[in-house]
Design goal:
The structure holds 2 protein chains of 2 kinds. In chain A, 40% of the residues lie in helices and 18% in strands. By secondary structure, chain A is of the alpha/beta class. Chain A has a single domain, classed as Response regulator (Rossmann fold, 3-Layer(aba) Sandwich). A 5-stranded parallel β-sheet of chain A has the order 2-1-3-4-5, sandwiched between helices. Chain A starts with a strand and ends with a helix. Chain B is α+β, with helices and mostly antiparallel strands. Chain B has a single domain, classed as CheC-like (Chemotaxis protein chec, 3-Layer(aba) Sandwich). In chain B, strands 1, 2, 3, 4, 5, 6, 7 and 8 form an 8-stranded antiparallel β-sheet that branches. In chain B, a hairpin with a 5-residue loop joins strand 3 and strand 4. In chain B, helix 1 crosses helix 6. Classes of the chains: A alpha/beta, B alpha+beta. The interface between A and B is medium-sized, with 20 and 22 residues.
């Protein structure tokens, strides 16, 4: 069975970029959110296996979502996909429990490689 | 519908291209300042060239303006203006921690502006399959005179408000890209191509 996926980004184009990088089968069980508040609402109500998370967003940014996930003890594999590529930011998201940091625009091959590395593919 | 009108999808695409370019410009700035820069979603606004001076009136508090011309392929060219608010200038100098004799205020401003402008435009150009070259940046003494002299060339202005917070400091500047109609028409073509791919 394909994993349940949530893509959270305020940009429609960025969400599509992630979507089309993923295997067809993953499209079945997929939800989207356009800000951190929406993402946390979905994460609370549903079991999400994989979250693709942007950082720079209105209404609770990506860091806020990571903190929320920790606070609520939600089990979820988070892959941060962001244009904010400062090394400090990358260490920060990893320290907050993200599996991996991917820079924007996301490259399909790299994304799949990261998913494999974390035994999700 | 004129050349300046963007559909919701075109605008979303442009915003994302700008976010990515801004992210890398911030990373360069952070390295230059040797600190961490908090990045916010840049606020973009497009302005018909005819109304630009009107819009800029609201920003008269901007005392220092650094201008830098850029040239790409397919008619994509223009001029970037970085406008700093007066109250922020002292903070930038503090941030850099330069002794007065090392670099003049103008040199610092030109350095920072050039980093932001060229990194931003290189990354932006790369995403639309273009490549930029640049003129030397210069400080403008009077923006309005400058704009009036070149007004007929610049049909369109893309204003990107950049708000940088650097640890205890924050500074705010506006990057205004002045581009001719041909450039926005070409940028829209590339954006449409990108959108068709999705």
């Amino acid at each position: 069975m394909s994993p349940s996926v949530l893509i959270c980004d305020d940009s429609n184009m960025a969400r599509k970029q992630v979507l089309r990088s993923l295997p067809e089968a993953w499209h079945e069980n997929m939800q989207t959110a356009t800000n951190g508040v929406e993402a946390l609402t979905i994460l609370r109500a549903n079991k999400i296996d994989v979250l693709f998370l942007d950082l720079t967003m209105p209404n609770i940014d990506g860091l806020g979502v990571l903190q929320g996930i920790q606070k609520l003890n939600i089990e979820c594999n988070v892959f941060v996909i962001s244009a904010d590529i400062q090394p400090e930011m990358q260490s920060k998201v990893l320290a907050l429990g993200a599996k991996s940091f991917l820079k924007k625009p996301v490259e399909a091959n790299f994304l799949l490689q990261e998913l494999q590395q974390h035994n999700l593919l | 519908m004129n050349a300046f009108h963007l559909t919701e999808d075109q605008r979303d695409c442009l915003q994302e291209l700008i976010n990515i370019a801004m992210g890398q410009a911030s990373e360069q700035l952070a390295r230059y300042l040797n600190t961490f820069v908090y990045l916010q979603v840049p606020n973009i606004q497009n302005i018909d060239g005819k109304y630009l001076t009107q819009v800029l009136n609201e920003e008269e508090s901007a005392t220092d303006v650094v201008s830098q011309g850029f040239f790409g392929y397919e008619g994509i060219r223009g001029e970037a203006l970085l406008m700093y608010q007066s109250e922020n200038l002292g903070r930038i100098t503090d941030l850099l921690g330069f002794e007065p004799e090392e670099l003049t205020h103008d040199e610092e401003l030109i350095d920072i502006s050039s980093i932001l402008t060229t990194t931003f435009l290189n990354v932006f150009a790369d995403q639309i399959d273009n490549k930029m070259s640049y003129n030397a940046p210069k400080i403008l003494s009077n923006v309005k005179d400058h704009l009036q002299q070149m007004a007929f060339n610049w049909d369109f202005a893309l204003k990107v408000n950049i708000n940088y917070q650097v640890v205890d400091y924050s500074f705010n500047c506006n990057m205004i890209l002045l581009i001719p109609e041909m450039a926005i028409t070409n940028i829209k073509k590339v954006i449409n191509r990108i959108l068709e791919d999705y």
